[in-house]
Amino acid sequence: MHGNLIDGEWVEGDATPNVNPSDTRDVVGHYASASAADAERAIAAAKAAFPAWSRSGLLERHAILRKAADEILARKEELGRLLAREEGKTLAEGIGETVRAGQIFDFFAGEVLRLSGETLASVRPGIGIEVTREPVGVVGLITPWNFPVAIPAWKIAPALCYGNTVVFKPAELVPGSAWALVDILHRAGLPRGVLNLVMGKGSVVGQAMLDSPDLDALSFTGSVGTGRRVALASIERNRKFQLEMGGKNPMVVLDDADLDVAVECAMNSAFYSTGQRCTASSRLIVTQAIHDRFVEALSERVLSAKVGDALDPGTQIGPVVDERQLAQDLDYIALGREEGADLVGGTRPNLEKPGFYLRPALFVGADNGMRIAREEIFGPVAAVIRVKNYEEALAVANDTEFGLSSGICTTSLKHATHFKRNAQAGMVMVNLPTAGVDFHVPFGGRKGSSFGPREQGRYAAEFFTTVKTAYTLA
Ligand code: ADP
Fold it and tell me: Residue 396: which domain range?
């Protein structure tokens, strides 16, 4: 059994099987579910470790993060395979995500050495001012299942880089990648208590973290409903928090778009990673002169997409993550038909293996008022919405409660520029999929998608440090 890491010790717990969604007969391993008391012990250990870690030498932190980066990158095939096996994204996607996690640790190893402040003159003569950044304290990290290694990496790396101690709770469905990552960091030389792993149920372990008076900050990625709970519990305790939640990301296709580029962008961002990305395009907003050609070409791709075992090299789209998510996807597919949209694909393929397979589903003739166009489905389901012109496309793109990523396919500089300025989203993509972002620049959204400072890149310091302004009479 793989245990939880509490105060530098691997601790056993109720063994929970980690099941492969491509073949439910395959158990990836058994992982210890933590109790609420384990979570409290982990928080106490992180609290005890904070004073020393927050004052640790820069070279110590740099070396640990660097070593972790090196090991992640050296083991990318094996870790990518584990990820694909437990989550269901394809092997290529799993390896790609693992490489990204290595790059994130490499980036933050460098950031350890680059944290700077400011010195300013006071408005009062003879006084000097220093603005510095300090670690926040004990940080709780709660992560979802769809990026089992990249999201933990982009929270753990900056948390440790800036001198915080960590209690990390991964999603129940993907403990394998989380355990492997924590094992790497532990062996890289982190002092006891600096990084604690508590696997298990959100309602038990996650809730114990929300209820703790000793977490100074909480970074969460997951559903809107849980995000609200994190927010309310954090406000009550005057705790700093950061939320990354859903999306209903639009991709606009204008008449002047390069058709091949638009179809590739749509296919990638709506259906790759089985559509299970918060940056996925689930609304394809298409102007009328290109509409039919776009729908025809994309439908062909949808119907010929190779759905199969995540570890099979020929697979383009792996299974849905679990039975509950599959049921939700199928419910939305039924709903879209009831709402009057025409369905292309969206059936369950007949594969030999017991897995949660689903063909990509493209709804044509959808309307932005339909529930399939308003609610996040989090599966390989996208709706095509036909519009008259660019102005209507922009209005429809922004007509959503979310605002994570927004894309446009066009060859018009004028429209691309206008869209970049007016899309109500944290990230804008021109002739690129809405999903697929770099690791060294800010990630995050607006409106109902996100709350708090951006993640990743140098902007991560906004959340993982707190600013101090010191005045000195010389
Ligand atoms: P999803 O529906 O995508 O699984 P969730 O928001 O339920 O999204 O899950 C995201 C993370 O939040 C997971 O690690 C999950 O275990 C955790 N979580 C779920 N419920 C709670 C809760 N009540 N308190 C704290 N964390 C929770």
Answer: 249-430
For residue 268, is it within any domain? yes
For a ligand 1 pocket test, name from 87, 142, 221 the mutation site with the most ligand atoms within 8 angstroms of its C-beta: 142
> Both 226 and 302 in a single domain?
no
Same domain, 182 and 39: yes
Nearest to 368 by CA among 284, 464, 273, 466: 284
φ, ψ dihedrals at 432, nearest 5°: -140, 155
By the 8 A CB rule, do 167 and 4 touch? no
Does 439 fall in a domain?
no
Ligand 1 atom nearest to CA at 226: 6
Whether residue 278 lies in the annotated active site: yes
User: What is the count of structural domains for the chain?
Assistant: 2
73 phi and psi angles, rounded to 5 deg: -70, -40
| Most ligand 1 atoms within 8 A of CB, residue of 226, 276, 322 to mutate | 226
In a domain? residue 277: yes
- Same-domain status, 375 and 453: no
Condensed to tens digits (0 to 9), the pLDDT of residues 71-129 reads 999 999 999 999 999 999 999 999 999 999 999 999 999 999 999 999 999 999 999 99
Residue 91: CATH number of its domain:
3.40.605.10
Residue nearest to atom 27 of ligand 1 (CA): 202
Catalytic residue among 40, 244, 264, 376: 244
pTM over 0.85: yes
In-domain check, residue 71: yes
How many whole angstroms from 345 Cα to the centroid of ligand 1? 30
Does the annotation mark 244 as catalytic? yes
pLDDT in tens, 422-444: 999 999 999 999 999 999 999 99
CB distance 224 to 448 below 8 Å: yes
